[in-house]
Task: inverse folding
């Protein structure tokens, strides 16, 4: 079946530094990927829609300059958290349309970011 | 505005009993999809079941069935013969449209705990 590989699974970084999270579709081409953020014991909140070869579409309230999304190829989308602060600590997870009809959404395994 | 509502923050069920997790949705679109995902403590999102808005029959996947009441805008998940491994967070979700760029929004989730 369709697989999305997300790395790293866990990262700890110092406040003020930037962190890059990668999501790669292994056996299919993903023209669209979605990035979510999940705080502890809360739901997944959509941050942005990543489109191959074009600018990402951000949800209301999400800072574009803080959460940089790049989707340069049909198999790779990256999320960079710039100048990270402790309040950016969260679980980030990506999802891609895997071409299995209307139900075809495949999720990465998630990245737990801790900013100290 | 599109919205998913899960009114049960937590549920306890005896092993081998059936359990129903509630989900209501709100959308003015005619084309949409409804999903249920399981999220164990590891964080991965496990797809359980899908129902398209035009599907006339309720979806079933093994021990999972989706009770789709379109007029009431409800999409409850029924798990038959619950197992200890079913203990996890469960999210109801909705895709808006059927295009490759259709995003998924999530409800607040229900934490299911199975008692031995």
Result:
């Amino acid at each position: 079946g369709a697989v999305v590989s997300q790395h790293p699974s866990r990262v700890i970084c110092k406040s003020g530094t930037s962190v890059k999270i990668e999501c790669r579709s292994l056996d299919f081409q993903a023209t669209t990927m979605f990035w979510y953020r999940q705080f502890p014991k809360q739901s997944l909140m959509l941050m942005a829609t990543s489109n191959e070869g074009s600018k990402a579409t951000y949800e209301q309230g999400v800072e574009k300059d803080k959460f940089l999304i790049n989707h340069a190829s049909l198999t790779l989308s990256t999320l960079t958290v710039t100048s990270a602060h402790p309040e950016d600590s969260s679980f980030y997870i990506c999802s891609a349309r895997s071409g299995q009809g209307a139900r075809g959404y495949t999720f990465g395994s998630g990245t737990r970011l801790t900013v100290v | 505005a599109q919205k998913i509502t899960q009114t049960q923050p937590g549920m306890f069920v005896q092993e081998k009993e059936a359990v129903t997790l509630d989900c209501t949705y709100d959308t003015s679109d005619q084309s949409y999809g409804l999903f249920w995902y399981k999220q164990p403590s590891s964080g991965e999102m496990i797809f359980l079941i899908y129902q398209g808005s035009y599907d006339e029959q309720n979806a079933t996947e093994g021990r999972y069935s989706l009770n789709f009441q379109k007029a009431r805008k409800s999409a409850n998940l029924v798990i038959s013969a619950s197992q200890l491994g079913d203990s996890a967070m469960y999210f109801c979700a909705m895709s808006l449209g059927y295009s490759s760029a259709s995003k998924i929004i999530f409800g607040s989730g229900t934490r299911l705990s199975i008692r031995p």
